[in-house]
């Protein structure tokens, strides 16, 4: 983990609330697929806390890294990111977290499934590239609520270029791009076709999608890893803002998503029950300080 000042190369709005930020980081650390950074415009004290962003793409040069982040403007922190211009400075603490587990392809098959919803998709690009490099055949299932008339869906063109169009399947809830509906229905149909049986599922997206992926993994006996997006304050294990209940050795315990995660085996996650008449509690519900 290093805390460095990066330089913004460019920061462009892709469409709607989705932005692409490219930065030069004066370090040469290796980034594992699924690892993230805590970032904030330098010399700004509002908001105080950095925001967690997964590394989308990384190129290692002789003296520096060029990294891309894809972000969705949600509140104060990401609105500030959207004001960055070329040449501006950015505090980048990283790489953080554990990242996805990637083995070598067994003799029995090479297919794996990646599943993303909305702004979950950036967590899967480095993973898809590494899986391909090792000889796996990844297929991406990606869903969003709607698409952009000109740009389609965020990041999907990059995945077409990496995996080929046949290996990227999309859904939108309004039917404006790909199949109408939710991505987990498309995944379920694909799993019911016995001709295609992935060795593993990897997912990142909103909680209802992740719960359904965990159910499908259990139903079809496929190991799954899920990257969780807890609200975070420090990003390196000291504040306990990000705790998650998990099963460990037949008991339930709490772990920190920033350190022990953000990637967990699906069967280890203890999902919180939906709360009825949840009172307004402030904190992350109303935005991060
Ligand atoms: C490991 C990790 C990787 C992430 N990678 C990305 C990424 O690549 N691109 C990206 O756009 N976002 C990513 N996020 C989510 C991102 O960190 C939050 O969206 C961001 O912190 C919101 O900050 P804000 O100040 O704009 O919004 P705030 O003002 O803090 O919050 C606005 C709204 O968003 C909700 N919110 C805040 N944080 C989260 C969160 N972590 N998950 C879900 N809802 C949240 C709040 O409850 C509130 O309703 C990641 C989160 C984690 C934990
Ligand atoms: S964000 Fe501080 S402990 Fe995880």
Describe the protein in words.
With 289 residues, the protein is α/β, with parallel strands linked by helices. It has helices spanning 76-81, 125-133, 156-163, 183-192, 207-219; strands spanning 2-15, 18-25, 36-41, 51-54, 57-60, 65-72, 89-96, 111-117, 137-144, 168-172, 179-180, 201-204, 224-227, 243-248, 251-256, 263-265. The chain starts with a strand and ends in a 24-residue tail after the last strand. Helix 2 links the parallel strand 8 and strand 9. The protein is built from five helices and 16 strands. The model is unreliable at 277-285 (pLDDT under 50). It has two domains: 2-96, Translation factors (Elongation Factor Tu (Ef-tu), domain 3, Beta Barrel), CATH 2.40.30.10; 111-227, Nucleotide-binding domain of ferredoxin-NADP reductase (FNR) module (Rossmann fold), CATH 3.40.50. The longest helix is centred in the C-terminal third of the chain and has 13 residues, at 207-219. Flavin-adenine dinucleotide binds at residues 36, 47, 51-54, 69-72, 74-78, 119, 122, 229-232, 262, 284-285, 287-288.
For CATH, the homologous superfamily of the largest domain is named as: Nucleotide-binding domain of ferredoxin-NADP reductase (FNR) module
Helical proportion, percent range = 10-25%
Give the helix/strand class. alpha/beta
Estimated radius of gyration: 19 Å
Mind telling me which CATH architecture of the largest domain this is?
3-Layer(aba) Sandwich
List the ligand species: flavin-adenine dinucleotide, FE2/S2 (inorganic) cluster
SSE order, one letter for each helix or strand: EEEEEEHEEHEHEEHEHEEEE
| CATH-defined fold name of the largest domain | Rossmann fold
Task: Estimate the mean pLDDT confidence.
Answer: 93
What's the domain count?
Answer: 2
Distance N to C terminus: 23 Å
What percentage of the residues does DSSP assign to strands (E)? 25-35%
How many DSSP-defined strands? 16
